[in-house]
Design a protein that fits this description.
The protein is an alpha/beta fold. It has 2 domains: about 230 residues, Alpha-Beta Barrel (TIM Barrel); about 50 residues, no CATH class. The protein is about 45% helix and about 15% strand. The longest helix is centred in the last third of the chain and has 19 residues.
């Protein structure tokens, strides 16, 4: 499920530990915006230790590294790519070549550390990123979603944020989920900054869902439940999930049949089966 991706400051051992109990669909330890420059190294050590205790986290665990232009990617990946981590969020991606380079680094670390295949989730936060979003989304089969980052996008455009006027970012916010869908991946909307404004969060999340987003980035545990209410599985998603479970149920649950089959022109396997089960479980909540 991609309804909620919560950013957890990697320099806070208290928040990293608390994340074990969170019900967000994706727990994302942060090495970027929420971590001051002088605490990056501490955050890396905290995150590496948390990943070593991955079994204590009930949800998928991702790490947001620093941007391709930061000069910090190599150090961040060395801290993040270990057994147990499920994905890497790459912020401020401008073009497909940045993802190609990071993918090679991740693959090399996977091989040397004998990890499983780690997902990549590019974050679209610049004018160049918006223009190149479709190519970015289709760069590699590791990519499972695009994230839209509204505040850095507006900064790049030299525009101010106004929650009552979306004109400055309407095109970008609309384009990202279209490009993601065209490339066969999901899209996750930007954060809502006002933690105490639940009504505003629900309105913003509802607008995102109508644009085709699968979920929303969040920054506080109190935002999880309202966002999940907005992004309940729809009829099409439930029907797809039922078809996947029917197609792969024997192989996944009984160890019989094929481990990968074709459905609606696409190959589906164990990863899709887990997603389908999560959708059906969420639909019953």
């Amino acid at each position: 499920m991609f309804r909620s991706l919560i950013f957890v400051p990697g320099n806070s051992t208290r928040f990293v530990d608390k994340a074990k109990t969170l019900a967000a669909d994706i727990i994302c330890f942060d090495l970027e915006d929420s971590v001051p420059a002088n605490e990056k190294s501490v955050a890396r050590k905290t995150i590496t230790y948390a990943i070593s205790r991955r079994q204590e986290y009930g949800k998928p665990v991702y790490v947001r590294i620093n941007s391709p232009e930061s000069g910090l990617v190599q150090a961040d990946l060395k801290a993040a790519v270990h057994k147990g981590v499920d994905g890497i969020v790459v912020p401020k991606v401008n073009d497909a070549q940045e993802i190609v380079k990071i993918k090679k680094q991740v693959a090399a670390l996977e091989k040397s550390r004998k990890t499983g295949k780690i997902a990549l989730m590019p974050s679209i936060e610049t004018a160049r990123g918006v223009v190149n979003a479709y190519q970015i989304a289709g760069t590699d089969d590791r990519i499972n979603a695009l994230v839209f980052g509204v505040f850095d996008f507006l900064y790049d455009m030299r525009l101010d944020y106004d929650e009552n006027d979306q004109a400055g970012y309407a095109y970008a916010r609309t384009k990202v989920p279209v490009d993601a869908r065209a490339a066969g991946v999901r899209a996750i909307d930007a954060i809502w900054q006002k933690i105490d404004d639940v009504e505003g969060l629900v309105r913003d999340a509802t607008a995102a869902r109508r644009l085709g987003y699968s979920g929303k980035s969040i920054i506080h545990p109190s935002q999880i439940e309202p966002v999940h209410r907005v992004f309940l599985p729809n009829k099409n998603e439930i029907e797809w999930a039922k078809q996947v479970v029917q197609a792969l149920g024997g192989a996944m649950e009984k160890g019989s049949g094929r481990g990968a089959v074709r459905l609606e022109g696409r190959m589906i396997d164990a990863v899709h089966y887990k997603q389908a089960k999560a959708i059906l479980d969420a639909a019953q909540d």
